[in-house]
Design a protein that fits this description.
6 helices; alpha+beta; five-stranded antiparallel β-sheet
């Protein structure tokens, strides 16, 4: 079996024996396994729990080829704290996973489409759940696409509008959200302490900032966030860390 193995400082292709499923496992012949930002970070030794050498690949889609009720079915899945960290992941031809850690792919989705859902969608769900986001309320997303992009979405209704951070570096339009009360929930996907610091100032009473990554994912070494404790406690605000790597399957 061909695979992309990794150590913290180098990558190489290598042939490995085809893995053998144990009791409770299934063997999946892989069709797709995307490279997520956390995969890239993992190859650089960014997760203390990872043992090397290790085949990376958290998310996957493929066909079950071992004997089981799912044999011949198209399935997809994602990692918790083990796959690609302490056991070999899906950047290979085959992967062994727990039988109850996959779901069948709906007929409307291709293998490629299903393969990319795991980490992004589970992280989004965890972030919104951790933030106690309510349907119909405005949620702010800090995103990075060359420049900081400030997006406002309404839970349950999709996109609403964007804030141009180059025109409004302090995100002033956000004060008008939720009936003029400000930001209930902000989800940071940049890991950049600068805009997070600005966003905290726009939080409403009881507002929450959820952080799902650090600057180390993009090569930055800056991880410290400044916050005014007096404002945090007087306005009952929260800064919440959300780590999908530490998620166990349901």
């Amino acid at each position: 079996m061909s695979s992309a193995s990794e150590r913290p400082t180098r990558k190489f292709e290598q042939n490995y024996p085809q893995p053998t499923p144990q009791d409770g496992d299934i063997l999946v012949k892989l069709a797709c396994s995307p490279i997520q930002p956390s995969d890239f970070l993992n190859t650089r030794g960014g997760f203390p729990s990872t043992t090397f050498p290790r085949i990376s690949g958290r998310d996957f889609a493929g066909t079950v080829v071992s004997e089981s009720p799912l044999q011949g079915k198209r399935v997809h899945g994602t990692s918790g704290r083990s796959l690609s960290f302490t056991v070999d992941g899906a950047h290979a031809e085959y992967v062994v996973v727990l039988a109850d850690a996959v779901v069948e792919i709906p007929s409307a989705l291709t293998m490629k489409q299903a393969s990319v859902l795991g980490t992004p969608w589970s992280t989004a769900w965890l972030a919104l759940t951790s933030a106690r986001a309510k349907k119909g309320r405005d949620v702010v997303q800090l995103a990075m696409s060359g420049l900081i992009a400030v997006k406002v979405i309404t839970t349950g209704r999709g996109g609403k509008y964007d804030v141009d951070a180059t025109v409004h570096p302090n995100f002033e339009p956000l004060k008008d959200l939720n009936g003029g009360n400000g930001v209930d929930v902000a989800i940071d996907t940049t890991g950049d302490p600068g805009p997070i610091k600005v966003m905290i100032k726009q939080l409403a009473v009881g507002g929450r900032v959820v952080v799902i990554t650090t600057g180390s994912a993009s090569g930055s070494t800056e991880t410290a966030i400044e916050a005014d404790f007096e404002i945090l406690y007087r306005k009952q605000q929260s800064i919440i860390g959300c780590n999908s790597v530490d998620m166990n399957r349901a």
